[in-house]
Amino acid sequence: MPSVIATIRVKEEKIEEAKSFLKKLSAETLANESGTLAYIPHQHKEDPTTFTFYEKYESDEAFAIHGKNLASKNAEFGDLLAGRPEIIYVEEL
Question: Which of 7, 8, 25, 63 could form a disulfide with 57 if both were Cys (CB 3.0 to 4.6 A apart)?
Fold first, then answer.
């Protein structure tokens, strides 16, 4: 099963907006993408501008569907970011 660990940094003045957006995004993703098994945002305690997602997908196809759906959120999401996301692709053993 493909999994992703994604770390993003948001603008300091956008922390609360980012938290709200990421919670909503997580709920929508899990409700609308049956192949997404886990989509869990975490906020770093030592740096509240940093968030890490743990994502788990049923298949590569489910991951591709998520990518297409996430692309539709780029305009809303892009304004929150303070740099490029760091994406690590892993496979569950």
Answer: 63
Strand-pairing partners, residue 48, are none
- Does the pLDDT of residue 77 top 90, yes or no? no
Is 41 among the domain residues? yes
32 in a structural domain:
yes
State the average pLDDT over residues 33-58: 97
| Residue 4 contacts residue 92 (beta carbons within 8 Å) | no
Secondary structure percentages of the chain, helix, strand, coil, to 5: 40, 35, 25
Q: Classify residue 26: in a domain, yes or no.
A: yes
Average pLDDT, the chain: 94
Q: Which domain holds residue 22?
A: 9-50
